[in-house]
Design goal:
conserved putative lor/sdh protein from methanococcus maripaludis s2 fold; 37% helix; alpha/beta; Rossmann fold; homotetramer; 17 strands; Alpha-Beta Plaits
Amino acid sequence: MTVSRVVELEGHIIDSGMMQAAFGIVMDLGGSFDVEEFRVGRSKTEGSYCRMTVTADDPEHLQSILHELHQNGANPADPKDATLQPAPRDQVVPEGFYSTTNHPTDIRVDGQWIEVERIEMDCAVVIERDGNGDPARAYTKVLNAIEEGDLVVTGEAGIRVRPPERPRGKEGAFGFMQGGVSAERPSESTIERIAEAIVETREEGGEVLAVPGPALVHSGAREDLARLVRDGYVTMLSAGNGFAVHDLERDLYGTSLGVDTESLDHARKGHKHHIYTISEIIRAGSIPEAVEDGTIESGVMYECVTNDVPWVLAGSIRDDGPLPDTITDAVEAQNAIREQAHEADLVLMLSTLLHSVAVGNCLPSTTRVVCVDINPATVTQLLDRGSAQAVGMVTDIGTFVPTLAEKISEKG
Amino acid sequence: MTVSRVVELEGHIIDSGMMQAAFGIVMDLGGSFDVEEFRVGRSKTEGSYCRMTVTADDPEHLQSILHELHQNGANPADPKDATLQPAPRDQVVPEGFYSTTNHPTDIRVDGQWIEVERIEMDCAVVIERDGNGDPARAYTKVLNAIEEGDLVVTGEAGIRVRPPERPRGKEGAFGFMQGGVSAERPSESTIERIAEAIVETREEGGEVLAVPGPALVHSGAREDLARLVRDGYVTMLSAGNGFAVHDLERDLYGTSLGVDTESLDHARKGHKHHIYTISEIIRAGSIPEAVEDGTIESGVMYECVTNDVPWVLAGSIRDDGPLPDTITDAVEAQNAIREQAHEADLVLMLSTLLHSVAVGNCLPSTTRVVCVDINPATVTQLLDRGSAQAVGMVTDIGTFVPTLAEKISEKG
Amino acid sequence: MTVSRVVELEGHIIDSGMMQAAFGIVMDLGGSFDVEEFRVGRSKTEGSYCRMTVTADDPEHLQSILHELHQNGANPADPKDATLQPAPRDQVVPEGFYSTTNHPTDIRVDGQWIEVERIEMDCAVVIERDGNGDPARAYTKVLNAIEEGDLVVTGEAGIRVRPPERPRGKEGAFGFMQGGVSAERPSESTIERIAEAIVETREEGGEVLAVPGPALVHSGAREDLARLVRDGYVTMLSAGNGFAVHDLERDLYGTSLGVDTESLDHARKGHKHHIYTISEIIRAGSIPEAVEDGTIESGVMYECVTNDVPWVLAGSIRDDGPLPDTITDAVEAQNAIREQAHEADLVLMLSTLLHSVAVGNCLPSTTRVVCVDINPATVTQLLDRGSAQAVGMVTDIGTFVPTLAEKISEKG
Amino acid sequence: MTVSRVVELEGHIIDSGMMQAAFGIVMDLGGSFDVEEFRVGRSKTEGSYCRMTVTADDPEHLQSILHELHQNGANPADPKDATLQPAPRDQVVPEGFYSTTNHPTDIRVDGQWIEVERIEMDCAVVIERDGNGDPARAYTKVLNAIEEGDLVVTGEAGIRVRPPERPRGKEGAFGFMQGGVSAERPSESTIERIAEAIVETREEGGEVLAVPGPALVHSGAREDLARLVRDGYVTMLSAGNGFAVHDLERDLYGTSLGVDTESLDHARKGHKHHIYTISEIIRAGSIPEAVEDGTIESGVMYECVTNDVPWVLAGSIRDDGPLPDTITDAVEAQNAIREQAHEADLVLMLSTLLHSVAVGNCLPSTTRVVCVDINPATVTQLLDRGSAQAVGMVTDIGTFVPTLAEKISEKG
């Protein structure tokens, strides 16, 4: 005896690969399906619709197929309310909790679809009802934020995932690079498009979050990033202790460090400057105090302080120091990064794997992402997270940032 | 008017490149030198000796040359006591503090040379005198451990650095791979030598520290590392939250995860298991409690717990969870890693850049290091720290660890 | 006024991504479409069918859409005979010639569909009719083989491309690694499957073509490949001059070279042996003569000669020598490689980009390919050619080949 | 009973690492040595001198040590004439032939030191005496150029190798990047120095040889390289069939290809253009004829033809076509490349491993080399050939060449 269920796919189900994925899932997992209805949107803007009956051997089998379909945007045609269960303990999820994707998601509560706030992948969804008849709210919580008694969505019922279509055609600054990463694209014109996207984002009042690694300073692009902060094209910064120390060290020990970054022979002396720099900031109290008392007079951190650009410096186990401004607790740092990620409209990941992954983990799939690294594996890893609006460039940060800054100032 | 100073180089100054480095430094920095005496050790074990007068334009110029010479093992011929200055504040070093290398180092205090304990690079040296006429002690302190009033070594006087010679000839398991990293070496015989070095280290009662990344679990080598722990060939473990979760998840959700690591299609479902795993450990209280209550029954962490192999799990901003056993504060985690690094006699860095750098930062240059990664840049970066006893292999952790475990069990 | 045409897709059009590709192409190129009929194969073996009307602005526009559709397996519903035009000159194709994919392809001649023989990408299709009423033949020709007067297929009419479905489910040794390359798969079990595929191929009387690079010799895996040749698991060899010289040199100067491959210090001395080796083979006349006169007594080339395994050594501009057996003309060498490629049932690409590309260029998409390299970019590039049966492994040839040989001898 | 011999080192023996290498060789190979005299050049321009007696167990042992010393620039203090033996056959070297390094080398013939012309590594040295009392000549011959009866230098006697010192200090455009390859250098200022070196080379009437790969065209830098040819900064070109076809295709099918290089979706259509392009050139007869008849109107090959910049196109087994201008025989192509390499004063290796290796094989160690590739392993491999004047950059050719062209036009 077999069991079956009707599921629907709606929207840009062909462009986004949803339909192919759905058919593949059913077959891979050993089920079968009948396409009941299939309408194709004629134009790029018109959505498509597919309704199909999925059949499996037994309820458990069906459930596992529906689970995978669901993660890929195929939702039951006869929606029920989501199942809610209280968290048994702090930091413990109820059995069968629903783990989010990074796509826009709705939860059916009391017969109403409500959108999940602050969507981000690998979270639980918590439902809040105030009891005053106001509509419920749904939002994500990471595991360590779960509190005993939180109403957590479990199972698959009453959940609707909407994977964004990949933009087609030439409209939009990011329409140009779907479908993979390549070192063999015309670099100058790709950077031109990224510059357009940044200018556009800022003109619309959006936030641009830069996530730079220390290599940015080594490679000589520090001044150019500082200029982007000063000119208002970068409005938030997320980095590590190492980036900040390198940036500050360049200000404090400019000349001699100039030599160091050009000649590996003297790298160790540069490292002493590293420790001195941290020591100087500790003496001043913090980076803003060091800016205020005139110790620090230029650079990315300087521009952040003087232009009120919010920044997060997250610590790691390989840090020297760290600076007094660095958040050393990983959970606390993640929370600070999460706030930035949810505010950002465009993210520039510049040659840092650790911090880019941390930011990327918190991003909805609808946020624009530009990822630049000399290592193709890093770019691939960062883009491989289902972002619908991602551009990867395998290139040298030391030529990328100056070229970007120049193209932005031409447009801005 | 010029100024000059006599410096000496002693030991394996030719093998280690010290002499060439010293001559180069003087010339690069615009000084000149007269070799007063030069004796070459005839055999591999006999040391050499070089005494030379270094001349510069003015005292400052001379000082900068002497500084670089010093970092490379050339010490003034007329030793004075080291200069000591109290730290002005917590976490602030006095001006001109001496920043350590990772080579064995002596400090001259009260006319006596004393060896710096727990040598590690980029630290300050603190001198402790008890005032009872007992000999003073010298040891390293990282910046954030400096306390107000600590007697910190400053300047260059009274400090003797002894860069280890590179082992020559064929004796010793590690004599075979000096001079670079290469993917084009005979892999099987290289692994054979590493196996010999591990067995030898254990026979002499030394400690073997493994530093594995999550890729070790993905690539199917988890059972082999678990066996090395169980059989006593790995005696300490330093890893991240991610490694432990992957290892535990494999135990808890074995079968289905088996599918996942073979097929990227289902990677996201695997991620849900990831969160479940953390949730289960939180429910149990900790990893040891999960082992005790029978939740966890196999794997690397299981073997560590049941065989009393000490482990450190360090947190990072990209972690899920984290596990209750993970140290989330970066400074605290570094301190735990530092303890392990100073006890280790041989370190196996297995496919993790972040944790390998953190451990490597704390190692003296005399500790044996084996670094294995599929990415040549990672191997190069990790070996590029002046270790005299380092072996790098650009290879696949999924074939390396099983082959290593097999070769060890043949020998052990 | 718009123009339209009915096209059909048939077979595993969902699994293979054909349908999604077809819809995408029409929309990307600014056309529109109506799905007239759409039937989905219920099971994995049952094919699907889609008939749709494609509409464009003008005939040229329609043609460009049909061209792209065609390359991706969507064929006009009302088939006409293919258009044939004589080649105007040797090595010159007629305007609008049809350039092949590497997928199985049929040509409609005189109302009959005939399969293109020796399909391979980027070729012209030549039709041969003997005039005796026998059915026509269709086969590929590379540009430089075109002769004046050859009847070359032009345009898109009367051509049917059949992209193979990607194998689904777990059946078949190669069902396990569709959808990408990864360094994070369980290496041992992947090699196990490859071993199974080789044994299976040989049991069915198929040909296994090995394409090794010189790194195979450096990394110590030469004996293992020699064994595979001797035991009949490798039945054809395609390599470069460099591979053969390294292999022969190992035989001639074994002991001293043993030292060389372990220590980069002596690499140059090894190079002198390289030249000597070539000189010795020239003195003997050729590799087979050197085997016969006892100069060469072991290794991969030795086993090829003594076991009548056909080999091709292709020259390149970076070669030393070359050996008298090396084909120095690129066109002649390509032709020899082409013969091998068309006979092969399974191809092992072992750490050589140049020769793997040369072989890969001539392979139909239905041939099984295993590609192993330490560099992920190489593996990606080699697999990125539409092969339906390709496995990529990012791993070390020095552990891969010994493990493979062992697993084969367990099974064989 | 031991045997010994006095050897001398002269010149920049400390800077170049010769002395350290010499001491290390003796010890590694189990010999011993006495330093008889040791004078250090005080300044950067003054050379040093070291005379030492090397002692070994028996004549054969001594010989092996002297051989290695010799390859590294330590020459016997009591020079004898070189031993000359006739080649026994075409393409066969006499036993014990001397295999060259790429360093400047002298041969002692009839009591006179004569410099080896056209020095290049892994060659034999042939001596020519005309018998009229004119001084003899010495020059290199590759193995396949050896003719029966050629007087070939054998053994080690009467040969003097002069490894160039590494430039120290800041003078010279290439003094800035000794000691390795790094992605973490200030890119803009590095490119600035390379631009200076090119301008300087041209001002002194030197030849600049560009060795570009097809990625240069994909990445959008074709116009910039064409400009460098037109403006006289690139005076020779060495490339493969693929580069030329891509360059010509861009000219012939500009617009549509513009789309192709930005969107991987249409890569296959681009490939058809590839074949068309070759077909068109074959129709015209050759590239120069295609330029003359107006078929080709822009690009790198166009500028080479119209500016009389000599070019070599070498074939390979992965080529399509090839073009009628491509030299398909590897030996013939090598000879053409060799001519270019010996004339070049500065070589730009731009994103092609195969052709860069082929050129690099023929270069003396004194020629300036700039090597640019996105893959660090490629850069390392190309620089790892003992060139004293090499700069490596791990960067994106698509930003490097435009930046270089701009900086050159600022200076030129």
